[in-house]
Structures are given as C-alpha cells and as structure tokens.
Amino acid sequence: MPKKIAVIDGNSLMHRAYHAVPQTMNAPDGRPTNAVFGFLAMLLKFIDMAAPDALICAFDAGRPAFRMKALEQYKAQRPPMDDDLKVQFPIIEELLKAMDVPVVRIKGWEGDDILGTIAARDEALGYETLLVTGDKDAYQLASDMTRIVTTKKGITDVAIYGPAEVTERYGIAPSQVPDYLGLKGDSSDNIPGVPGIGEKTATKLLQAYGSLEGLYEHVDELKGKQKENVVGNRDAAFASREVATIVCDLDFPLDLESFSFPSFDPDTVTEAFKKLQLNSHLGRVLKFVGRELEKKAAPLSWEPVLTGLEADALVDAAIEDGETLGVAFIEPEQASLFNANLTCAIGTAKGTALYEDEGGLVAFARVVRAASFAALDVKQVIHRIYPADTAAPALVQDDDLMDMRAFDLGLAGYVLNSSVTEYTFDALLDAYCGGVLPEAKSETDTAVAQAAAARALVGPLTEALARDKSHAAYFDIDLPLVGVLAIMERTGAAIDVERLAQLGASTLSELDELSERIYEVAGETFNLDSPLQLSRILFEVLGLTPRKKNQRGYSTDAAVLKELSGDHELPALVLRYRELSKIKSTYIDALPRIRAADGRVHTTFNETVTTTGRLSSSDPNLQNIPVRTDFGRQIRECFVPLAAGERFLSADYSQIELRLLAHLSGDEHLVAAFCSGTDFHASTAARVFGVPVEDVAPELRSRAKAVNFGIVYGQQAFGLAQSLGIPFSEAKEMIERYFAAYPGVRTYLDETIDLAKEKGFAETMFGRKRHIPELRSGNGTQRGFGERTAMNHPMQGSAADIIKLAMVEVQRRLKAEGFRAKLLLQVHDELDFSVPIDEVEALTAMVADVMEHVAALRVPLEVGVSCGANWAEAH
Which listed residue, 53, 343, 504, 507, has the most CB atoms within 10 A of its CB? Predict the structure, then answer.
C-alpha cells in the first residue's frame, strides 16, 4: 500500500467552521473558539474516515504576484477577516503543533499552491494524496494518486473527488478546471471570466473545444451575443485561467518521507486541549495513540444512602444542625408515561437521603423552606416544586423563594469566569476540587454523586469568590436574583392569540406580495431563503458590487443588503422579506404553540450566558423582538396584561450606559450635561460641533448620538464611518472633537485600558470582573478587541448589575407593600409589569423610586415609566 498523506487547507476549513458553528464558544481566557472547535470536528471526522499515514496543514501567506499582475482585481474586494475568526488562527496552530502536525506557510503564496506542490511531490514519490479543502479550484489537482476531500453540508458531511467524480460533477476533466474557471469566472475570488457564461455553458464549450485555445480557434462557430462576449473578453478569459491555475512547483523544504501520524506526545496534547477546555475532542485525539482521556474522580463522600423514614430523619437532623445540603434531581431520558421515575438525592455530612418521584419533591420543598442548600442550577431544580406554569401546583410560595438560602454552583463558576461556555459538575469539580464525578452505573448513582458534589463545591467556590474579590457580585447581585427570575418565569406573559392570528394572516399576504415583487425585479424566480441563489441574483444577474465574502461565496447578510439598498431596489425588498419571515416563524407562528397550560408564554431567563453580566432570554427569546420597527411594534401589541382590568406597565432606564460613563469618568462637562436636564445628545452636538444648543439640527444631533454610543462600545473611526456612512477622515475628526469636548472621558478610557492590561481584567463599579487575556496578546487584532472590551465592560456590566439590583428590590417591595401587580419581563434596561388599574399610580412611583435610587451616581438615574393596553403602548 502506498503511503497516504493528507494535506489540509487551513484557511478553507477555518472559514467553513467559523460560519458553520455558532459563535457562542469561548476558551477559559475569553478567546472565541467556535472555528477551532469546527475545524477539529472536521479534521477528526476525516482522520477516522481516511486513516492517513501523515498530516500536513497549509495556510495562506499572501497572494502571488503573478496573479495580482494578471488580474488586478484578484481578491481585491475580499473584505478583511472577522476579528473573531482572525484571533483563532494562532489557537489552531498551537493545537496542530501539539498534535505534531506540520504547518506550512510560504510568504507570498496561497494554501492552494502549497497543496498543489505537495501533491506533485507525493506523486513523484509514489504516495497517495488527499487534499482537504472547500475550494473547487483544487479539483484541477485530482488524479489517480490525488483526490480532493470537500465538505458537502455542515462540517462533517464530506465527499471525495477523484477524476471520475470531477467529470461526473462538472462534465469536464480535472485538467480542464482552470479553463472552466477562465470562462465562467469565480465571484468568490473576483475572477471575472466571460460575461454571460455560466457553469453549463462553460462545460458545453469545453466538451466541444477542449480548452480556451481550442475555443478561440473555432470562435467563428459561435453565434450572436455569446460570440460577442467570448471575442470581446479574450484577455479576461486567459487572465482568469492564469489566476485560477494552481502552482505545483513551489520551492520550500519539506521531508515528506519522514512525516507520520499519529506521532504526538499524549501529555503535550492533553495539556494544550485542556487549556482550551476541548475535552470532547481531546478524548478522540488520544484514541489515535491508544490512550483514554483520564478522568480522576474527585474525593466525594456520600455513604450511607438511606431511604424512607431513615432518609427523612437524616434530612431533618441536617437541617437542625444548620448544614448546607447538596441537592440533585435525575430524570431518565425515557420517562414512563405513568411514573416519571424521578430520583432526588439530598446530601448531608452523615449520608445521603434518596427519594423517588413525589417523595423527593416534598423533601426538597422542606429543604427550600427551612435549610441552606446547594445545587448546580438552583432555578432549574426550584421549578421541580414551583413549575413555570401557574396551572401546575407549587409546593413552595413566592416568599419562600425570596427568603431561600441557596448556593448556585454554576452561577458561582460564571461570576468567577463569565467567558467559560459551560458550568457542569465535571468542569467545576476539575477546576476547584481536582477531579470529576465518579463513573455512575445508574440514575441513582448519578444523583447521589451529584448531591455529594454539590456539597463539596460550596466551600472551594466560596473561597475562590473571596480570593477573586467577586464575593459581592455573587452574593449581593446574582444569587438573590435567582428567586426573582423563578417567580417571573412561573408568572409568564399573556398573549392575544386572536390578534396574533390576524397579524399572521396579514403577514402571509405581505410575504406573498413581496415574493412576487422580488421575482419581478430579479427577472426570475429563485429560492428566497437560499443565500447562494440570492448571491447569484444580486452579483451576477443584477451586477451589483459585492461587499463581503464568506466561505460559501459573497455574503448577503443584513449589513450587506442594507449597504446595497442604496444601489438597487431588490436588497431592501429582501431585507423586508427576511424580517417578516423570521418574525412570523419565531413569534407569530410559534408563540401560540408554546403556551403552557395556563395559556401564557413562559420564557427562561439565563444568568450564565452573556460575558457581560446581562441576562438573556430563551425559549422563546422575548428580548429579541425588534423595538424600532413597525412590525416589531405589532408583535408587542400582542403581549397584554395578565387579566381584565389590568394594564401593561413598562419602566425603562434612560441612557444608563452614558450616565455610567459620566459617573465613572468624572468628566465635569459630561456630568454637567446630565445634571442640567437638557437634551444630552443635543448638548454633545453643541460642544462637538461648536454651535449653540438651540441651533443643533436633527442631523447633527443624530451624529452626536452615534458618537456618544460609539464611545461607550469602544467604537473606532472606521466603525463610526460605516455606521454613519461618512468618510473615515470625517469620523476620525468627530471622535477627536468629542474627546476635546470631554477630555475626562479620554483620560478615563486610557486609564481603564492600562489598568485592565495590568490586572488582566476589567470590572464594573460593583466588582464584576471580565477577564481579558487578549490585552496581553502580541497580535494587534486580539489586543484591539481586548481594549474595546475593557472600555465597554465597566459601563455595560455596571448597567446589568444595576437592573439586577433593581429587580430584587422591586420584587421585595411588591410583596412587602401588598401589590397585586406582577413583574413579567426584563429586557436589558427595561422592566415590564401587569398591574391592576387601581395600582398604576402607586406602582409607577414605587418602581421609579427603586430604579432611580438603587445605585448612587454623580448623575441622576432617569427612568421613564408608562403604561397602556399592551406592551407596545406601554413602551
């Protein structure tokens, strides 16, 4: 058997992975890792499938001069790589190094040329080559000894192309692929080809004439417009072919005979992968060398395990002794219809109480009312006895939840490091107790071990919070909110189903009209939900100028369509179609279906998802309904008070992050602007543009507003220029004028970055930290991301802390003062209530008082409170 060498096109796979895997994955140090995760998933799937004898990974290192000379626009319009992708390339290279996979990068050459050269050298040695890439240009390299491995769908569905497969797919031989691209072009690389010649026509011409030379020798056999295009674009065709031809004779050292895989050191790989918490991939990599991922069991104690009356006595004694109990529920994946087989374990210092079904719920309710307890996700276990559906009976009351003495393990892990993507027992035990859960043979074993782990983790996590000086963020802000969120989730939100149905019918009608208009403007029908087909219409049929490229070709995302809307009618129509279609499926169609037995929609509020400390909402996401669009307003009109005779009341912080900037920076002019009570954005415009405040035109105010919010989010001149549609120089001057007007802000932001670089983290005014390792990176892009994060976190994180503090105090006063009103929703800086009409005035005063005085700032916290018949009217 000949040696089989696999060559990975690193850039291609990283781009593919970045756009295929959700951008919600981070390493413990905060760096994004979704592309790394996807890259490894593809690589490991390929290794399992192909079992190569050696692996090599090639990366781009520029563009060849001959291609740039042949075609000046070659990749000229390719946008800069996303920052979150760029920072992941050093990570994947670190992992490849740990896996002893050679990385090849040749200055001034692209990965395709490295693949071609290695394939040629392999053939000379009699080796078989597998080229792993998503670029169709590589099909020209297919031969009896070289095959192309490409992804078809997602990141693990692959296809292998040899000469026969290339011919079957394209109707041409691999050697004709450069001619094929010379004729049809390649929009993803800005290769023009010949206008009017697509895939089918290019194939037919090459089947008839063999090559570009053959075609032009018989050009008189062509007719009409096709002949005119071919003749008139001869130079472009040959230049396009030259650019598309992969170089196979680069000069660089590479000892192919010495490479083998696997040849890595298991300990080195383990250290590298564990540092990034890529344990699922690590286990698969270690199997290549016959090693299993070692999981040392944490030192846990749970014996004896008692049931029945003995279990009750054990729990009662622990409560009497003032212990913190560990609680865990386990429900089998396939629960019986008549018996859930729910297992509840309650860990104590003298053993574990084990219950099944109703007995566990009753015991846990007793613990909530009378004891201190710990659980991995307190809100989740609370809903066992306090369901998120008012039609289901609850075993505890609202007051019990507000007074409970709970320790949420996952939440503690989040406060200690908000960049980690999961807070599991194994992750927490590994980090704070030096091990993981022991292997369990049954649901009972799992429950007992988890209850013991819950008890064991309280001490180490409490000590870690104290060492990290994150004690206040956890015990004063996040933990007290758990009960409030559980109450809100049980309360739910009422919707007007009939109004939603009417909105659905009118939306469907508008979607049909939009579709017809889009097809009319495009001149043909196509799949509106296919980015690839839309890209063809926009950039090939209509000839619009592409703005941004992704792995599948030119992007048609919302930002691109918005930019293109000034050039043509179609992009704006598609934007509208997408907005209506998405909101129809996400809200109009879905909300009536996901109502609970009480007829209400019960969202889940998450405390451990965002890195900033903000809450998120899911299943459904009620924080994501558009605020400023007419259609979003129509959706909000469908959210109504809980009962007849009640109103929907909304209380919203005004410009809280800007007010926090004034407070934290102490800039006298910024503080004065907020304390004066005048229009803040107009006041900024007056100072920045040097005009009296009464002469500030709407456009100037709008620009000042963009600068104000841009500064909060660390926006630079490039971003401001894009958002305002103005030249870079003008945006740069505006920012300079802003800092001249508010010099204290510039000083504060610079000092904040310097302090974060020194400490490794930024923090809110309440001590919530966000660790930012990018600040110490030698990579400029990573460092820039870190600096923007450091500037923004004190404002955005402090705003999140303030609204959380307000929620806890509002819920406390609702109960203490006998309000019948209910807190329904939180949408970032906004709290929403259902309130009886006779309580509107009192509730308005109470909520405004709490929100405005929950934190003391140099400037007033301003809250707008309004009410109406529905959410839209109240906002």
Answer: 343
